[in-house]
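B., you asked whether I could sanity-check this one before it goes into the benchmark set. Here's the sequence:
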Amino acid sequence: MSNERARLLLHPVRMRVVIALSADDLTTRQIGELLKDVPQASLYRAIAQLHDAEIIEVVSETRRGGAIERTYSMVAANAVMTPDTFTSGTPEELLGAAQTFADLIVQSTAEHLAVGGDAWREDRFGMRHEPLWLTREQRDELSDDLKAVFDKHLQRERSEDAKLWSMMVAVVRSQTAPPLDPASSPSAD
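And here's what the prediction gave me:
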């Protein structure tokens, strides 16, 4: 994936547009309703850039008064953020993407709590943080396992009783662990 495509996907507004379109096809107006804090000019520019890069596509056009209302869909194959996507940008761009991702978790939770009343207690929320000691091969295996889980559930048909859930997973290298003490290592015996 090129640096240009990575920069397109890692930009906070464009990333939020792609994430919004990952759940459903939407018009520009509907995207704007989901991203109320984004100025209209910035939103239109982000949509145009994503469309030009073939990350999103127009799936229908409807005449509304004197204007054409377009409905957009994400082009899943072009919106995938691979490890190369993250490493082809700058450290600042990666940090911006991580901040956008973290903000989406908080925003999604806040929106659900705002409209759900006490019913939120009936939902099964899950948040988990685990330190994992992994070799490069084990890290690759974890990535493959997570992809398989995502693929399994992404292939499900949408049913009448289904509710939209957001699954957000971040696997980030931690620098907070102390070095391994050779005396406590099993191979030290």
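One thing to flag: The helical segments are 3-10, 12-23, 28-34, 40-52, 76-79, 83-87, 91-116, 136-154. Otherwise nothing jumped out at me.
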